[in-house]
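Box 3.1. Reading complex inputs
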Amino acid sequence: MGQYRAWLDAYAQAYLAAAGWTLAIAVLAFLSSLLWGALLFFLRLSAGVWAERLVDVYVQLLRNTPVLLPIYLIYFGFPLIGLLWPAAICGGMALVLQNGAYICEIFRGAYKAIDRVQHDAAKSLGLMPWMAFRKVTLPQLLVHSIPALGNQAVLLLKDTSLLSAITVVELTMQAKVLTERTGAAYAPFLLAAAFYLSLVALIEFGTRLAHRSVQWR
Amino acid sequence: MAMTPSDVWVMAEAARISLALALAAIAFGTLLALLLTPLAFAPFALARFGYWLYVFLVRGTPVLLLALLLFYALAAVWGRISPYAAGVVVLTIYLAALFAEVFRGGVLAIPRPLWDCCKSLGLSRRSIFWRVTTPLVARYALPPYLNVCVMAVKASSVLSIISVWELTLAAREIIERTLDVYRVLAVAAIFYFIMCFAIDRLGRRLESRLAAKGFAGERL
């Protein structure tokens, strides 16, 4: 136990900083993914056949390739066009590209789950299209997509660990560095895992709470 | 410097390794999941808790962290170990949790009255298992099972970070040598897309063959 104590004293600060990076990247990337996914969904919904096809191709392409590819695309590709951005931003953008595709699919699924009758009812009440969307479609869409969005947030949080491949010192990278520096076989990784697990538990709990609180009575 | 046709061949070879890793992990993961799923329905609370704990721990940790943990921990115990073996073990552990949840969902999707029907027909437990549960779970679980198989191919790319030479690592090496970022990644994306898409198509075909007359995959 004593060695862990000394080890924690020496490295707690590095750990907390790395955990902060993981958290910051995950939160910012998730919020941006929500926006990007919503934009893709609206394009698909209301910008004509070609927009629909284009969005579908984009979504299928990103869903069927590993997220490391967009990460490398931006990290190695941006310098070639003269953009020398920090690795964390490049990686975060790649996460947004892929998670936006997933979130677009989530919104699409939620939209399909809304009964067609609802649209007719809104029309027969004389609601204008925008009003019908805001008052009838959107609230149901959001409620239907809460569980899947929570799930996606968990996946995104875990995917931030891949940014260690492009030199971002987030939690997984820090654990790896400490393992190599201190010769500890697994303690740094277990500590990192505990952090991820508690965040995942928190997200799952929050999702359930949110879903229950907006459920129709 | 641009990538050459021989680089494409190298990447095709790497794609073959990615696929082999994924398929091995799918096979072992399915076997492990078939052992895990019954725990979720066991009459002992301890078994159910064990199942829940396994799924929570594995699904709540990034695959990369699992891979590093196993790679370094095993290396500390046994000295150098093959990253390929470690990679297959990690993917197996990861996929088993996902598959087990898929199978559990399949069992839960069986409508309740069906169990009573089986009982009132006087079927033995064994014939309920083989003639009712198994065929129905296979049908309910196939679509999400295939989703996880696609995830397996994508997750194999993570192993590149623990120095398993597969498609993503090959792509990275070629990028670092030629700086031909866009073309190399496009080729890698095409290979991944083909693999994922092929699994998907294969599964859909299997699905239509498994589908019995009148079985629409929906709850009664």
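In summary: Residues 164 and 173 of chain A are 5 Å apart (CA to CA).
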